[in-house]
């Protein structure tokens, strides 16, 4: 007997799916802004060898890049309370995403900073700009422009990775999908729709970030 | 009193002793041409004058701001010394106008409006008033180099350093840049330039310095020095480059 596809039991829960998708996007937005911010700070410390922060960021980057996101999340949510640091599932999810994206973007942005031609740094120095002014006005924008596509991909990876936050009952899209599936037992239909939603969200984020990049980072049309 | 005074200046790169005791006086309005073979230390000397290279030993003074054995206020020094590079080094994300405005606004705290006025004036001076809103990659090499000159001039330096500023240009673009430098010289700008344009050095310069193995080997009035070199090394060097009449 052939399987009878029926999406109605999924669309009954459209509200739940949409609010889950909304939470995933919110989580991603906060995680991206703070994570890239952290990445900029980390990249400065690494690129300029500001002690001891350069080594601190070095160790941090290696730990995060070489361990699973799920374990990082569990450590924050289940592990840290042992040290008296308790947080809600939302706080834990945001923190895990910021820490994760912060590590990857530290490396990505550092590569952009270090690609600044020496001549431009010397020209800026010869105009009596301070180290900080050189970074702010000469290095940062071209560096971000150069690595913007890589950062965009990383934000999308983190958005997709946020699915595992359902494991600590953060009510984002995957959590909603699991809940719906447990009610209607329509695994194929439920996860098909969920997959489509993630796919559309990823496309939207890529479009949005590319436009932000063109407008504010690259700074001119064409 | 001299505007730029260098005394007993030494510089090493590791074990490579690159500047071996340079003494140099440059007066207000002087146009100094630095010549010499590759590796003789011309660029290094120029770069020490605005602190892009550190000094191991000796004294450097520009208009009252001094470095003793490499110690002193670098940013104060750099406000008095402008520099133009072989590779232009414009900031690619900024328009020509913004390139010129950056240092006056950021370093001198000038208002955007005042900086814009200065930028327009400086771009006009180098013949590029209409390129204010062009990005560097929309300009020819010669135009980029003229923007770089305008950018340095906008800080109203006491002395302008030029390191082979026409060497990266196609031959047909060299003259438009040299014309700007010549104009600056007639206006009384103090210039120290490393150049391979021997004819330009002779016609525009009032002081010629021949560097050899990290020392000032011979110096004097360009016409005299070119016509009548006192050392075999300079005679040899002059013979190897064309000083077309
Ligand atoms: N950053 C550096 N690190 C190490 N050695 C250097 C550095 N810059 C220059 N040198 C060395 O210092 C010496 C002088 O170099 P400099 O660039 O001043 O010569 P130059 O007279 O400007 O030559 P050119 O005509 O080729 O530009 C050379 O031996 C060069 O290899
Ligand atoms: Mg040189």
UniProtKB/TrEMBL annotation, chain A:
Molecular function terms in GO for this entry?
transmembrane transporter activity
Q: Specify the protein's topology with respect to the membrane.
A: Multi-pass membrane protein
The compartments listed are:
Cell inner membrane; Cell membrane
Key words, A-Z: Cell membrane, Membrane, Transmembrane, Transmembrane helix, Transport
Q: Which GO cellular component terms, listed alphabetically, does the Swiss-Prot or TrEMBL entry include?
A: ATP-binding cassette (ABC) transporter complex
Signal peptide annotation: none
Q: What is its main location?
A: membrane
* Parts forming coiled coils: none
- This protein's source sits in the domain of life called Bacteria
Q: What is this protein called?
A: Amino acid ABC transporter permease
User: Which species?
Assistant: Parazoarcus communis SWub3 = DSM 12120
UniProtKB/TrEMBL annotation, chain B:
Membrane topology recorded in Swiss-Prot or TrEMBL: Peripheral membrane protein
Pfam families, A to Z: ABC_tran
Looking up InterPro entries in the UniProt record yields: AAA+_ATPase, ABC_ATPase_HisP-typ, ABC_transporter-like_ATP-bd, ABC_transporter-like_CS, MetN_ABC_transporter-like, P-loop_NTPase
Name where it's found: Cell membrane
Keywords (A to Z) from UniProt:
Amino-acid transport, ATP-binding, Cell membrane, Membrane, Nucleotide-binding, Transport
**Highest taxon above the source species:** Bacteria
Q: Cellular component GO terms, alphabetically?
A: plasma membrane
Residues covered by the ABC transporter domain? 4-238
The record's listing under SUPFAM superfamilies reads: P-loop containing nucleoside triphosphate hydrolases
Q: Which GO terms describe its molecular function?
A: ABC-type amino acid transporter activity; ATP binding; ATP hydrolysis activity
* Entry similarity comment: Belongs to the ABC transporter superfamily.
This chain's protein is named Amino acid ABC transporter ATP-binding protein
- What is the originating organism of this protein? Parazoarcus communis SWub3 = DSM 12120
**Organismal lineage:** Bacteria, Pseudomonadati, Pseudomonadota, Betaproteobacteria, Rhodocyclales
């Amino acid at each position: 007997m052939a399987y009878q596809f029926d999406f109605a039991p999924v669309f009954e829960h459209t509200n739940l799916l949409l609010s889950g998708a909304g939470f995933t996007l919110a989580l991603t937005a906060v995680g991206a802004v703070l994570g890239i911010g952290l990445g900029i700070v980390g990249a400065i410390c690494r690129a300029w060898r500001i002690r001891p922060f350069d080594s601190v960021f070095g160790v941090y980057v290696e730990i995060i890049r070489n361990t699973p996101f799920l374990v990082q999340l569990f450590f924050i949510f289940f592990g840290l309370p042992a040290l008296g640091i308790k947080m809600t599932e939302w706080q834990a999810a945001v923190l895990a995403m910021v820490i994760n994206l912060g590590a990857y973007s530290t490396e990505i942005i550092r590569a952009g900073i270090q690609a600044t031609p020496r001549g431009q740094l010397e020209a800026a120095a010869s105009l009596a700009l301070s180290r900080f002014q050189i970074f702010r006005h000469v290095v940062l924008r071209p560096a971000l422009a150069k690595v913007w596509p890589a950062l965009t991909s990383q934000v999308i990876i983190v958005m997709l990775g946020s699915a595992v936050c359902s494991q600590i009952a953060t009510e984002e899209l995957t959590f909603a999908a699991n809940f719906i599936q447990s009610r209607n037992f329509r695994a194929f239909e439920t996860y098909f729709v969920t997959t489509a939603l993630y796919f559309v969200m990823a496309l939207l984020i890529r479009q949005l970030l590319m436009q932000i990049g063109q407008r504010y980072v690259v700074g001119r049309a064409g | 009193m001299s505007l730029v005074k260098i005394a007993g200046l030494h510089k090493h790169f590791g074990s490579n002793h690159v500047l071996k005791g340079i003494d140099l006086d440059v007066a207000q309005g002087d146009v100094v041409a630095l010549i010499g073979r590759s590796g003789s230390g011309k660029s290094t000397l120029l770069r020490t004058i605005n602190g892009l290279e550190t000094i191991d030993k000796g004294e450097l003074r520009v208009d009252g701001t001094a470095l003793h054995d490499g110690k002193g206020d670098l940013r104060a020094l750099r406000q008095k010394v402008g520099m133009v590079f072989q590779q232009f080094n414009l900031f690619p994300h900024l328009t020509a106008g913004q390139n010129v405005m950056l240092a006056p606004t950021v370093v001198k705290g000038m208002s955007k409006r005042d900086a814009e006025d200065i930028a327009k004036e400086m771009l006009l001076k180098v013949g590029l008033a209409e390129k204010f809103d062009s990005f560097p990659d929309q300009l020819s090499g010669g135009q980029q180099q003229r923007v770089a000159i305008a950018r340095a001039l906008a800080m109203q330096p006491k002395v302008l350093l030029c390191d082979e500023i026409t060497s990266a240009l196609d031959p047909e673009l060299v003259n438009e840049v040299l014309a700007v430098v010549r104009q600056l010289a007639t206006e009384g700008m103090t210039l120290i330039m490393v150049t391979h344009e021997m004819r330009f050095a002779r016609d525009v310069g009032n002081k010629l310095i021949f560097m050899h193995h990290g020392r000032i080997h011979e110096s004097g009035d360009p016409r005299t020095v070119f016509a009548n070199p006192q050392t075999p090394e300079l005679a040899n060097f002059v013979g190897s480059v064309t000083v077309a009449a």
